[in-house]
Amino acid sequence: MRNSNEIKVPVWFWIVSLLALVWYLFGVFQFYTSATMSATSLEPMVESGQMTQAYADFVLAMPIWVKVLFGVATLGGTLASILLLMRKRSAKTWFIISLCGAVLMYILLYGFSGKLSVIPSSDFIVVAVVMVITFLMILFAGKMQKRGVLNR
Questions:
Q1: Mean pLDDT value of segment 73-82
Q2: Phi-psi region of 141 (alpha: psi -120 to 50; beta: other; left: phi over 0)
Q3: What pLDDT was estimated at residue 143?
Q4: Which of 35, 49, 60, 98 has the most crowded Cβ, counting Cβ within 10 A?
Q5: Helices 121-146 & 90-106, crossing angle to 10 degrees?
Q6: Can you tell me the mean pLDDT for 92-100?
Q7: Which class for 145: exposed (0-12), middle (13-18), buried (19 or more C-beta within 10 A)?
């Protein structure tokens, strides 16, 4: 068995890990703004045409469990990124938890809302990007674990 000091960690590992942390911190910011938004904070976007009133109403009516799942997805991904930077094996598990939170949130929110007609198509692009990046991070963490980079 190799000693953890013998493993040469490639520079690109640090770059990918830092980019992941930035990505998930942006997600935490989005989580915070969604948890604290109000009709008053959305009004300028509705007035400027960036958002329809129907979509603003949809966003404001999100149940608490959607916000909890959003928190699990973003905070889980952030924790996973930090664990990745610390070279901890548990990073992969937290990326999986993050993906599960996101999948549940999107399925329950969009799949059972009955409001697909008010959701802008750009939201579905964001959903796809979130899913792909988190899935790739699971694969990345698994590969780094097999190579011995994540060994603590």
A1: 98
A2: alpha
A3: 95
A4: 98
A5: 160
A6: 98
A7: middle
Evaluate whether 33 touches 50 at the Cβ level (below 8 Å): no
Residue linked to tokens 């598990």: 93
**What confidence category does residue 62 fall into, taking pLDDT thresholds of 50, 70 and 90?**
confident
C-alpha–C-alpha distance, residues 36 and 109, integer Å:
18
| Token pair in block for residue 106 | 């999107």
Give yes or no for a contact between 141 and 109, defined as CB atoms under 8 angstroms apart.
no
pLDDT at 5: 54
Predicted confidence at residue 59, as pLDDT, reads 87
Determine phi and psi for 106, rounding to 5 degrees. Answer: -70, -40
What does the domain layout of the chain look like in residue ranges? Answer: 24-146
| Closest C-alpha among 132, 131, 78, 135 to residue 105 | 131
